[in-house]
Amino acid sequence: MTEISTPSASTQPLLSSLAFDDGLDPAWVAAVVRTALDEDLGAEPGRDVTTQATVDAGARGTADLVAREAGVVAGLVVVPEVLVQVAGRLGLEAPAVTFVARDGDRVEAGQVLATAEGPTQVLLVAERTLLNLASRASGVATHTRRWADELEGTGAVVLDTRKTTPGLRALEKYAVRAGGGTNKRMGLYDVAMVKDNHVVAAGSVAAAVAAVRERFPDVAVQVEADTTDQAVEAVDAGADFLLLDNMPTPVLAATVAAVRARQGTPASGVPGATVPAHVELEATGNLTLDRAAEVAGTGVDFLSVGALTHSSPILDLALDLRAS
Fold first, then answer.
1. Taking CA 66 as the corner, what is the angle to CA 60 and CA 69, rounded to the nearest 5 degrees?
2. Do 167 and 299 belong to one domain?
3. Is 318 helix (H, G, I), strand (E, B) or coil?
4. What's the pLDDT score for residue 38?
5. Cα-Cα-Cα-Cα dihedral of 24, 30, 33, 38, to 10°?
6. Do β-strands 157-159 and 106-107 pair in parallel, antiparallel, or remain unpaired?
7. Quick one: 128 and 179 in the same domain?
8. Rounded mean pLDDT, 260-266
9. Pair 250, 183 in one domain
10. What's residue 84's pLDDT?
11. In this structure, is residue 149 part of a structural domain?
């Protein structure tokens, strides 16, 4: 149990104690919460015409954050930030929060995750914003955990993609980690991904890889391949990570074997270069839970699943105000 009186100025200590891997920037969390509150309350300081009309500013209450269904929780790190910002907008004290779960925990239906005690106005005004963010993150973590459980013991790991909700990428990718998955890349800036259109524009796979190496030598280069021949061409061109797209299982297995056979040998497409000792291989396209272990059995390192972030249903959470 983590018991904390929510600070009025900074929630960074909470982020450190509750976060799954300290992977969320407190400044980013504050900015996202500010935007979400502007949506709900109007321009700062904004207003909640129902709560401020029916609840006295001096009233105090206690509310429980409760899981309405079983799953994996994530996004608890945003709860104190929402409460702090709402309190600041209303000119009231920030509620004290006691956490009985942390991000990454498996939870059951009816389980209390946290309790907040303080001005009732703050609790009610903050309710929807904190639930929207925590429910969304928990849904992603829950979905990811299903894949992680299915892949356990296979040696393969589930990856996310860039198919995220605009403005919430950091939270959703954080939730993937909380659910037992791994982030592939945060954006277009940290890993190069050579796809078919890039090959057309550059003239060949080798030309595209060489261009990235020359312009951005600090980044890893991944190449998309639809066939075994394309995969071999890509590693010979100097790629150190392959995206194997929409391959039937037998073709995928043959491609993995062909690439593994090229590891550590001279790269025919790059004079003087050697294929890496281990080329990372990622399967993607038409992946389902019922064939996850089968795909992992081909020897790939990763299965990337866009649905983790673009199609996960929320985990139903509620903020229940205790009767006085």
1. 160
2. yes
3. strand
4. 97
5. -150
6. unpaired
7. no
8. 94
9. yes
10. 97
11. no
Residue 162 host element (H or E): none
- Each residue of 290-323: pLDDT tens digit? 999 999 999 999 999 999 999 999 999 999 999 8
Does residue 19 fall inside a structural domain? yes
Please name the residue that has the structure tokens 């393969």: 156
> What pLDDT is stored for residue 15 in this prediction?
54
The total domain count for the chain is: 2
What pLDDT was estimated at residue 5? 42
pLDDT band at 22 (very low <50, low <70, confident <90, very high): low
69 and 196 housed in the same domain: no
The residue range of the domain holding 83 is 2-141+312-321
**Active-site residue, selected from the candidate residues 21, 149, 195, 229:** 195
Q: How far apart, in whole angstroms, are the C-alpha atoms of residue 321 and residue 98?
A: 15
Residue 196 lies in a domain: yes
Do residue 175 and residue 282 come from a single domain? Answer: yes
Please report, for the domain that includes residue 292, its CATH number. Answer: 3.20.20.70
Q: Which residue has the tokens 């080798």?
A: 206
Of these residues, 103, 160, 245, 282, which one is catalytic?
A: 245
Amino acid at 13: P
- Same domain for 239 and 127: no
Are 66 and 111 a contacting pair, CB within 8 Å? yes
Mean pLDDT along residues 28-35: 96
User: Residue 113 pLDDT more than 50?
Assistant: yes
- Burial code of 283-320, b = ≥16 C-beta within 10 A, e = fewer? bbeebeeeebeebbbbbbbbbbbbebbeebebbebebe
Which one of 81, 105, 172, 224 is the catalytic residue? 224
Known active-site residue 69? no
Q: Is 173 a catalytic residue?
A: no
pLDDT of 23 reads 78
Contact 122, 83 (CB under 8 A): yes
Q: What is the pLDDT of residue 16?
A: 55
Known catalytic residue at 163: yes
Answer yes or no: do 301 and 161 share one domain. yes
pLDDT tens per residue across span 140-169: 999 999 999 999 999 999 999 999 999 999
**Average pLDDT score over the chain:** 93
Does 168 share its domain with 250? yes
